[in-house]
Amino acid sequence: MKKVGFGLSMLRPVRFVIVAITCALLFFSNTVAASATVGTNTSNPKEATTQLLETQKRTDEASAKPPLSAEDQIEATKGGGLNEIQGTADIEKMKRPENSRNATTVEDEVKNLLNKVTGND
C-alpha cells in the first residue's frame, strides 16, 4: 500500500501543472479573441447615426398617420424602395434577383464539389 500512496503523491505536482496550464490557456484564448476586434471598425459611426435618425423620422411620420388601405399602401411604396419606412436605404447592399443574376447557387456549388470529390470533372 505504501507504493500506491507514494505513486499518487508523485502525481500531485503534475496535476497542479496541468490545471495551471489549462487555466492559462482559457484566460489567454479569451483575451486574444477580445483584443482581435480592437481597431477593426472601418465604418464611419456618423453615417449610421444619420441613417438611423432619418429612418426614425420616417417611422414617426408614418405612425402619426391613420392606417392605409391596401390600395393606398401599394401606391405609397410604388416610388421605389423596399417599404414605406426604409425606402431605398442600403438597397445596393441587399441581395435581390436583379443584382445576383450571375451568382452561383448553393446547388451549383454542391454539384461542383461532388464532381471534384468523385473525379467527374
**Count of DSSP-assigned helices:** 4
Mean pLDDT, all residues: 78
What is the β-strand count? 0
Kindly estimate the percentage of residues that lie in beta strands according to DSSP. under 5%
Structural class: mainly alpha
Oligomer: single chain
Please give the alpha-carbon distance between the first and last residues.
68 Å
Sheet with the most strands?
Answer: none
Computed over alpha carbons, the radius of gyration is 30 Å
Order of helices and strands: HHHH
Low-confidence segments, given as residue ranges, are: none
Approximate helicity band: 55-70%
User: What would the principal axes of the Cα set say about the shape?
Assistant: elongated
Describe the overall structure.
The chain has 121 residues and is mostly helical. Among the domains are: 1-33; 45-91, no CATH class. 62% of the residues lie in helices and 0% in strands. The protein is built from 4 helices and no strands. 0% of the residues are buried. The model has no long low-confidence stretch (mean pLDDT 78).
Q: Which features would summarize this protein structure in a list?
A:
121 residues; mainly alpha; elongated
Give a topology summary.
Layout: H1 2-35, H2 45-64, H3 70-77, H4 106-118
